[in-house]
Write a structure and sequence with these properties.
The chain is of the alpha/beta class. It folds into 2 domains: 144 residues, Aspartate Aminotransferase, domain 1 (Alpha-Beta Complex); 243 residues, 3-Layer(aba) Sandwich (Aspartate Aminotransferase, domain 2), CATH 3.40.640.10. The longest helix is centred in the last third of the chain and has 22 residues. The chain is globular, with a radius of gyration of 23 Å. It starts with a strand and ends in a 13-residue tail after the last helix. About 1% of the residues have low confidence. It binds pyridoxal-5'-phosphate. Its EC number is 2.8.1.7. Belongs to the class-V pyridoxal-phosphate-dependent aminotransferase family. NifS/IscS subfamily.
Length: 421
């Protein structure tokens, strides 16, 4: 069994860390269900277990009422009409439905799609599938700060472009794309706009009218709701059509069949409402913690680099490269902190993060990066302990690195001819 570890903090009580419950700084991978959300979900697992599609008795009516309320809550959170909300199993499914659904429906108009290189795999892999079906996809480069160049974006639009998909807030580097400007460009060219807002709701104001989104993917578990539930916003005016990808009983106005998971939906609705209510206070508190973490790391550790724009970024994310340290080794050495290198979806492989590569980072720096995700339940003591642990572990790992030693001796590593192998 692992034993607990005590971290001494300046001027504060020591923080006791149970290695089976490391400090959680991976809020972009997932969030815990907020206790207020859970409380609202529970009755729908037991007492109010009815099927919302059972129209002939009170069990069904109770479930239907709960689903309607949640639909309204999600619609209100994004300034939409409840009839524009389609329940799905998460943002992956929403994005599949949006892109495949629109591509299939509008394929007579054109077969070209635009997206960014730094999108989530839910978008990139869906686009790859559409390419296999004969669609053509432009994967636009981003600038060094992770933001798209609007002129390049507009220039990519062709007469046969039917849909463009852009990530509102990036899951790896937290940068916020200029959504209103992108929306304006796409509407002027009559191209449909799909927004992946999985990491945006509760972090920045999300308004489908302000950004002229035609479709928007949302996820419950990124905003303190349960896993396995998401939604797709599909605009009614002007009407957007998507071809169903899941067939069955014709639920969700034929766009997505399957019995509705009432408890999950109730959780998603409650989480969306709470996310909007707490957005400003969460951002303020989390912003202070992020600044504390950054300052602490920069004061204690040399040769660190921030990935992604600091100006156009949510405070919930900090992505830092620690030069001369291999990220995976650092994460392995940091058993007391739960963080991720690159995105959780790619961390199973040793490929450097494609998002960081798209910012022009070298493989070495991309490999040595850590994503810190700060959230609603992060404390100041946890941040201080993290700084302490990072400073200690980076120092130790660098002591073992011959490259670090050469760098300390002032040798220009770029001037060295490495043997090929
Ligand atoms: C930006 C973004 N889009 C989509 C997804 C997929 O969401 P879900 O887990 O709800 O399918 C995620 C989660 O990893 C994400 O961060």
């Amino acid at each position: 069994m692992n034993s607990s570890q005590i971290i001494e903090l300046d001027s504060k009580k020591p923080l006791l860390i149970d290695p089976d419950r490391p400090i959680y700084l991976d809020y972009q991978a997932t969030t815990p269900v907020d206790p207020q959300v859970l409380e609202q979900m529970l009755p729908y697992l037991t007492h109010d277990f009815g099927n919302a599609a059972s129209r002939s008795h009170a069990y069904g009516w109770t479930a239907e009422k709960a689903v309607d309320k949640a639909r309204q809550q999600v619609a209100d959170a994004i300034h939409a009409d409840p009839r524009e909300v389609v329940w799905t199993s998460g943002a992956t499914e929403s994005t599949n439905l949006a892109l495949k659904g629109a591509a299939h429906f509008y394929s007579g108009k054109g077969k070209h799609i635009i997206t960014l290189r730094t999108e989530h795999k839910a978008t990139l892999d869906t686009c790859r599938q559409l390419e296999r079906e004969g669609f053509e996809v432009t994967y636009l480069e981003v600038q060094e700060d992770g933001l798209v160049d609007l002129k390049a974006f507009e220039a990519a639009i062709r007469p046969d472009t039917i849909v463009a998909s852009v990530l509102f807030v990036n899951n790896e580097i937290g940068v916020i794309q200029p959504m209103a400007e992108i929306g304006r460009i796409l509407r002027a060219h009559k191209v449909l706009f799909h927004v992946d807002a999985a990491q945006a709701l509760g972090k920045v104001p999300v308004d489908v009218e302000a950004i002229q989104a035609d479709m928007m993917s949302l996820s419950g578990h990124k905003m303190y709701g349960p896993k396995g539930i998401g939604a797709l916003y599909v605009r009614r005016k002007p009407r957007v059509r998507v071809e169903a990808q899941v067939h069955g009983g014709g639920h969700e106005r034929g766009m997505r069949s399957g019995t509705l998971p009432t408890h999950q939906i109730v959780g998603m609705g409650a989480a969306a409402e709470l996310a909007v209510q707490l957005m400003d206070s969460d951002a303020q508190r989390i912003g202070k913690l992020r600044d504390r973490l950054l300052k602490g790391i920069q004061e204690r550790v040399e040769e660190t680099y921030i990935n992604g724009s600091m100006e156009h970024r949510v405070p919930h994310n900090l992505n830092i490269s620690f030069a001369f340290v291999e990220g995976e080794s650092l994460i392995m050495a940091l058993k007391e902190i739960a963080v991720s290198s690159g995105s959780a979806c790619t961390s199973a492989s040793l490929e450097p993060s494609y998002v960081l590569r798209a910012l022009g980072k070298s493989d070495e720096l991309a490999h040595s990066s850590i994503r810190f995700g700060i959230g609603r339940f992060t404390t100041e003591a946890e941040i201080d302990a993290t700084i302490e642990l990072i400073a200690g572990k980076v120092g130790k790992l660098r002591e073992l690195s011959p490259l670090w030693e050469m760098h300390q001796e002032g040798i220009d590593l770029n001037s060295i001819q490495w043997a090929a192998h």
